[in-house]
Specification:
The complex is a heterodimer of chains A (362) and B (294). By secondary structure, chain A is mostly helical. Helix content of chain A is 73%, strand content 1%. Chain A has a two-stranded antiparallel sheet. In chain A, 43% of the residues are buried. Chain B has 294 residues and is mainly α. In chain B, strands 1-2 form a two-stranded antiparallel ribbon. In chain B, helix 1 (3-34) packs antiparallel against helix 8 (188-213). The chains are: A mainly alpha (362), B mainly alpha (294). Chain B: Belongs to the binding-protein-dependent transport system permease family. LivHM subfamily.
Amino acid sequence: MALVVGVALVLSFPTIAPNPYILSAGIVVLSYACTATAWNFMGGFTGYVSLGHAAFFGLGAYGTGLLIRDVGLPSFAAWLLAGALVLLITIPVGIAALRVRGASFVIVSISFVLILLLVFQGWGSFTGGSDGLVVPRPFPDMLRPQHHETFFYLFAALLTVMLVVWWLIDRSRFGTGLKAVREDEDKAQALGVPTRNYKLVAYVVSATFTGLAGGMYALWFGDLDPIFQFSIMLGAYMVLMALLGGVRHLFGPLLGAFIVGTGLEYFKLEFGDTQFHLVAAALLLGAVVLFMPDGIIPAVTGLVRRFGPQESSIREVTAAELLERNGGTSPVPQPGATAGSDGSRTTSEAAPPDPNDEEDPR
Amino acid sequence: MTGTLLFQSLVLGVLLGGLYALLAAGLTLYFGVMRVVMIAHSAFLILAAYLAWYFHEQTGIDPLLSLVVTVPLFFAVGVGMQRLLITRLRPVTLTMMSVLLTFAVALFIEGMIGFVWSGTQRRIQLPYSGDSIEFFGAQIAVVKLVAFGLAALSLGLLYLLLKHSRFGQALRATIQHREAAQLVGIRTDRVAGYGFGIGLATAAIGGTALSLDATIYPSLHWHWIGPLMAIIVVGGLGSIPGAALAAMVLGIGQSLLQVPLGTTWAQTIFYVALFATLMLRPQGFFGGRLAQRF
């Protein structure tokens, strides 16, 4: 039910958006949702926090742009090929990064972004360097609002594909193996889960989807700059969005992207170029990590359950109910009855049965 | 490349490596005591540089004197950070979550520096800023020498503290095996807090040294954290001598490569070394059991 309403809201957004700016903000939020969901293939299933997924976003974006500019491929063929290239690049990177756990993995992921930033800034003749790279628009004869609308649906389609794949993995044997890695990697390995290969596949899938989101962004936005594509901030936003929503839930990253993306757009609009959005993002990230590491979805469902019926820690259960629950076979002792009858058990009709009787009916 | 030029870059590399060594020692100290990758380390470095600059701007006194304030201040902040923030995290996910938490701290510092002092590039002008001395044909700027001296002195003090004091023994015991240290009566919580404080104090010293001859701006810390993290992985997470040695080697390497390749490409040596280390020896060149598990 909620799903249908959500889908209807997303699909009708271009028609109800009051002006092109709101629509373009909607596209930005949707692209954030794509990256956060893509990140969640690695972060959510295996628990490996990668702060460097912006690297794959940038590679996808630049791959698409360069394939169109230098090879002359049609836009969407270039997009798919760039996704395939990201996949190929990720395999060796993943093998190197996944040789270590935890802390070193994070360090490697950040380093990969920083190294690519250096390369793409330094190699100006190929990538355009800090001057930026202009990506030709795929639909040259479209007006701007129409262009936005088309890309809104394209991003929504990409997001849907990702969500479906995530859902499928979530219920597969592969997904269970990944979750075992998240909970206890050593035990998973001891139980025969091929942890390295599983992690590598998750990493590659995650990176490829991130690359595709980056390529789509390049086609839509049309202007790339290494500073913004290979930015650690972008990777950090992905983590923040996924964590905020809840990494163990299908729609967690989407929800987080909606909140963080809307907030970022608001801050950009209100405060412009000041550093306020950094401070706000920092405070939000700190608060999430300290107080809500499981995200909003578990927090809210927990809250609902707390105020819902039948879930308090002290349960009031009448003797009759207890009798019914136990199958009605053995009469239940009533503490009040024995205490009140000061030991004269033989006279009382409702006397508790002997310990011997209690074992009998089973 | 002529002999003089080679020698000059070698000397500059040693001077740079000294600063890297001090900062990497701090970074590896946090990891040792708490299993925390402190991304905010370089943000505190830049903050200390800004404080030194501001101190000089307001009073006109030599920025080195700001150390009297910043070192105790950063030590206290470090202890407070460990006590109030890091220990609140769940032990199971401590390593991953602490990365995010310290990342948030780094962003906060960057944002606040930009807010308070604006994003303009700053530089300290000192009477001896332009001076340099000749050393076997190599021209060495005095400020770089002062920075190196400061780093070397602090690193020496840190070494003495760790090797020859009761507190140092307790700290090293905590790094090696926390539970065992607790069993022999070390208050590991307190020791870990002080370890964190000392780590942050190295950032204060490094930042002041950096402010002498570098142009500073709020987002500069991203240029420092990458190399520093690469250094501690190459040296082996948790190993202070490993970090110092890797810092020296990579600092010299960067300085030598700057001549034929230019500054941007020379920086990639850190990442090349990082990936090579992971492929050949994932636990780092001096790391033991500890490094591979985290």
